[in-house]
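Final report, closing paragraph on structural work. Over the funding period we assembled a curated collection of sequence-structure pairs, and we close with a single example.
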Amino acid sequence: MPIKRSYADHGDACATAHAMELLGDRWTYPIVRELMLAPKRFSELAEGVRGITPATLTTRLRDLESAGLVERVELPAPARATAYEASAWARELAPIFEALGRWAQASPTRAVDGCGLTPDAMVQSMMTMAPEHGPEQPLELELRLRDDREPGAPAYTYRLLWEQRLQITRGQAPGAEVLEGDSSTLAGVLYEGVPVEELRVHGDEVRRLVAAFAG
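Its predicted structure, as stored:
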């Protein structure tokens, strides 16, 4: 197998070129995306990064650890398992990923028919595509999302808070109204006009969320 040469090996000192080397593999972004909000076990990553084989995931995680983008952590009780998370350095990429996501909306070759979004991908998409001017009053919700494309896949809980800007983090939002459902269906509701009744909705705040994305 030929040795892969870097841009630096060819005398190019450009930091942006090095960044593209770090991120350019087809599996790098999906793996890092699934680790941006919270640690995940190997099995969760294998479900969330669609199409990747266990062997490839093992290799890519090792490479991303060596590059400083991914770290191993030990989950506390009751899980008590080894997991992976995005490093603090990798999490600095969040605004860059958001800018790339907005830029890619204009791609003439982007194919979305028959595709969907994992729960973590969906909430990061929401932060990427949120209108600059959100709801007039602060909005707080608890999201409970699952990926119906993967039978038995776990559901994840998020706290959504929209004040000056939309922020979504892992965890509960005690006292807030709740939205439950499939993450790809939520994408259809916010981006394609699918009726909100396709989701399980508790309260009217969800309709404010939909209205804010509709502009």
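The chain has nine helices and seven strands. The first helix runs from residue 15 to 23. We thank the funder for supporting this effort.
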